C-alpha cells in the first residue's frame, strides 16, 4: 500500500521486498524454460507423440505443487531451520501424484514398454519441484536470519536469485564429477563401482514411481506407514503434554525407519556427543556463546568433509584410478577405518576442548 501510494521510502528497511508484480513476471517467465525442459526430456525418452499433454500437464502440475510445497517447506525452514524441513516426505507425495496423473492421462495411450519412460518423466517432474522446494528452504531461512539482524529483504532476495543462477552452473558439474568417481547405489553401473555412494531417499522415490506406474505397488504398506506416522505424532503430542523431557520426534523416527544404519549411526553419535557438550557448556560463564561456537565447529567439519569429498572425486576422475592416494593395499581397510575413526574422535575432542578454553579466556 505504501509503495502504491508513493511512500515506499517511508517503509522500514526490514519491510522492503521485491515488488510482487516483478515476482509474478519472473514466475511466468520461468514457466517457459520449465516447459521446454519437460518437452525435451519427454521427446528424448520416447514420449514425443504426447508432448502437448506432457508439457501442459507437467507445467500445470509443477506450478500448483510448487506453491504448496514451497509454502510447507519454506514455513518449516523459517520456523526451525532447513535441516528439519519435510522435503523428503513432501517429495514422496509429489512423485506419487505425478505418477498417478501419468497413469491416468498418458499410460493408456502408450505401449507397455514405455513404462520406464513414464517413470523417468515422473522423476524429472518431481526433480523440478524439489528444486523449487530447496530454493524456498534457503529463501525463508535466509530471510528469517536477515530479519534478526535488520537486513533489507529485497537485497537478500536479489542475492538469492544470483545464488540460484550460480548454483545452476556449479551443482550439475559437481554431481556429475561425483557420479563418475564413485557412482550411486541403484544406478545401472553400480555393480561395476567398488564403493558406490548410497542414495536411500532417491531409491525410495524411484521405487514409488516405478510401483505406481507398473501397478505393482503394495498400497497396504503405505497405509501401514501412514498409520504408524499418525501414531508417532499422537504419541509425541501425549509426551509433550505429560512429561518434561521425553519426546518422540516423528521426523527422526521416519528417518530411522527407512534410512540405512550406516547413514543414521553418526547422527545418533553426534546427538549424544552434542548433549554431553551442551551439559559441559552449561557450566561455563557464557553457555550460549560456547554452544554457538560448538555449532560453528560442527558446521565447519561438515562443510570441510564435503569440500574434500569433491576434491577427491576430481582426483579419482582425472587420475583414472579408484584409489589414487592409497598408500597401502586393500587388506588394510579394516585397520584404516579404525585408525580413521579414532583419529577423528581425538581431533574433535581436542577442538571442543579448545573451544571451552577459548570461551573461558574471553569471559575472564
Describe the structure.
There is one protein chain. The protein has helices spanning 20-44, 51-80, 87-105, 115-148, 153-181, 200-214, 219-242, 250-258, 261-281, 287-319, 333-363. The chain is an all-alpha fold. Helix 1 (20-44) packs across helix 2 (51-80), helix 2 runs antiparallel to helix 3 (87-105) and helix 3 (87-105) packs antiparallel against helix 4. The longest helix is centred in the middle third of the chain and has 34 residues, at 115-148. The radius of gyration is 24 Å and the shape is globular. The mean pLDDT is 83.
User: How is the biggest beta sheet arranged?
Assistant: none
What's the rounded overall pLDDT mean?
83
Distance between the termini: 52 Å
**What's the number of extended β-strand segments?**
0
Question: What portion of residues is helical?
Answer: over 70%
Domain tally: 3
Low-confidence sequence ranges = none
Order of helices and strands: HHHHHHHHHHH
Number of helices: 11
Quaternary structure state of the chains depicted: single chain
Q: Tell me what portion of residues adopts beta-strand conformation.
A: under 5%
Briefly characterize the structure.
The protein is an all-alpha fold and 364 residues long. It has helices at residues 20-44, 51-80, 87-105, 115-148, 153-181, 200-214, 219-242, 250-258, 261-281, 287-319, 333-363.
Amino acid at each position: 500500500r505504501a509503495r502504491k501510494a508513493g511512500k515506499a521510502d517511508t517503509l522500514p528497511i526490514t519491510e522492503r521486498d521485491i515488488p510482487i508484480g516483478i515476482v509474478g513476471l519472473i514466475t511466468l517467465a520461468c514457466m517457459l524454460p520449465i516447459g521446454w525442459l519437460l518437452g525435451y526430456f519427454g521427446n528424448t525418452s520416447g514420449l514425443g507423440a504426447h508432448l502437448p499433454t506432457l508439457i501442459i500437464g507437467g507445467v500445470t502440475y509443477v506450478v500448483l505443487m510448487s506453491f504448496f510445497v514451497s509454502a510447507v517447506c519454506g514455513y518449516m525452514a523459517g520456523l526451525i531451520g532447513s535441516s528439519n524441513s519435510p522435503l523428503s516426505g513432501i517429495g514422496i507425495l509429489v512423485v506419487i501424484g505425478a505418477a498417478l496423473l501419468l497413469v491416468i492421462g498418458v499410460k493408456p495411450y502408450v505401449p507397455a514398454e514405455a513404462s520406464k519412460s513414464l517413470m523417468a518423466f515422473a522423476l524429472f517432474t518431481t526433480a523440478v519441484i524439489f528444486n523449487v522446494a530447496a530454493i524456498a528452504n534457503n529463501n525463508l531461512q535466509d530471510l528469517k536470519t536477515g530479519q534478526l539482524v535488520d537486513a533489507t529483504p529485497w537485497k537478500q532476495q536479489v542475492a538469492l536469485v544470483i545464488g540460484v543462477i550460480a548454483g545452476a552452473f556449479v551443482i550439475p558439474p559437481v554431481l556429475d564429477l561425483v557420479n563418475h568417481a564413485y557412482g550411486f547405489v541403484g544406478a545401472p553401473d553400480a555393480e561395476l563401482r567398488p564403493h558406490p555412494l548410497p542414495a536411500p531417499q532417491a531409491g525410495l522415490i524411484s521405487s514409488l514411481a516405478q510401483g505406481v506406474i507398473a501397478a505393482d505397488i503394495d498400497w497396504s504398506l503405505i497405509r501401514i506407514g501412514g498409520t504408524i506416522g499418525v501414531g508417532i505424532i499422537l504419541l509425541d503430542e501425549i509426551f509433550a503434554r505429560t512429561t518434561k523431557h521425553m519426546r518422540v520426534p516423528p521426523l527422526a523416527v521416519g528417518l530411522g525407519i527407512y534410512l540405512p544404519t550406516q547413514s543414521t549411526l553418526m547422527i545418533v553419535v553426534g546427538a549424544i556427543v552434542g548433549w554431553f557438550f551442551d551439559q559441559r557448556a552449561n557450566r561455563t560463564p557464557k553457555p550460549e556463546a560456547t554452544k554457538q561456537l560448538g555449532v560453528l565447529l560442527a558446521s565447519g567439519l561438515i562443510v570441510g568433509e564435503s569440500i574434500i569429498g569433491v576434491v577427491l572425486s576430481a582426483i579419482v576422475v582425472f587420475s583414472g584410478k579408484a584409489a589414487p592416494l592409497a598408500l597401502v593395499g586393500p587388506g588394510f581397510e579394516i585397520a584404516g577405518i579404525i585408525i580413521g575413526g579414532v583419529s577423528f574422535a581425538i581431533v574433535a575432542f581436542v577442538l571442543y576442548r579448545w573451544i571451552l578454553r577459548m570461551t573461558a579466556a574471553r569471559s575472564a
